[in-house]
Amino acid sequence: xxxxxxxxxxxxxxxxxxxxxxxxxxxxxxxxxxxxxxxxxxxxxxxxxxxxxxxxxxxxxxxxxxxxxxxxxxxxxxxxxxxxxxxxxxxxxxxxxxxxxxxxxxxxxxxxxxxxxxxxxxxxxxxxxxxxxxxxxxxxxxxxxxxxxxxxxxxxxxxxxxxxxxxxxxxxxxxxxxxxxx
Length: 182
Ligand SMILES: [Zn+2]
Prior knowledge:
Layout (H helix, E strand, L loop, with lengths): L11 E4 L8 E4 L5 E2 L4 E10 L2 E7 L8 E2 L2 E3 L6 H13 L3 E12 L4 E10 L10 E7 L12 H13 L7 E4 L9
Parallel strand pairs: 4-9, 8-11
Antiparallel strand pairs: 1-2, 2-3, 4-5, 4-7, 5-6, 5-10, 8-9
The structure holds zinc ion (ZN).
The site of zinc ion has 8 residues, from loops.
């Protein structure tokens, strides 16, 4: 960070503000403290009968690998709304959310995933600008070696282990770096 977005000063310190616990950028001129917090990624685990819908990524990182539809939550948006929007943007699929399925933390890259379990309303779906291919997979067809992100692997494993009617939320994390993280 080079400039204070409040006063324009280039005199910034990186320090622990008084009474705080973490280092922050602090403007030496106007005193503004800049908080950096994890980003929230929302998406769905879309289910149709005994199949799961996955999207093959058309964008980096992990281009060409399979993933559950998900993306960054927007300001002013509810988590479940963002999950439905991201699912449509990546697959043109319309989903009905059933429940929160997974909370998955990636502290090394400052991200938290929320995956919602959802019913596919019908089998209308297809590739988009973000997605090369969309298809339904039975359990024994899941391409485990070609899954883009750890959160998707975790969400799929928990779904197949505990089923659709499990009342709780699965809480997981990955402490290493994502394969793609530079
Ligand atoms: Zn300032």
